[in-house]
């Protein structure tokens, strides 16, 4: 019984880690993208304010 659990755990661990890594990467990229689009919006506002 314990042996079966161990084998299952060994198969599942890498999957969990890769899933976690993918999620972390996705969240990081999402954050970067949001920050970037926020900066773009601020720049546009700045330009509009500057010209008006």
UniProtKB/TrEMBL annotation:
It comes from the Eukaryota. This is Uncharacterized protein. It comes from Stephania japonica.
């Amino acid at each position: 019984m314990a042996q079966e659990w161990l084998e299952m755990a060994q198969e599942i661990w890498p999957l969990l880690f890769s899933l976690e890594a993918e999620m972390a990467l996705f969240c990081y990229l999402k954050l970067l993208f949001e920050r970037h689009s926020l900066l773009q919006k601020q720049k546009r506002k700045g330009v509009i304010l500057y010209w008006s």
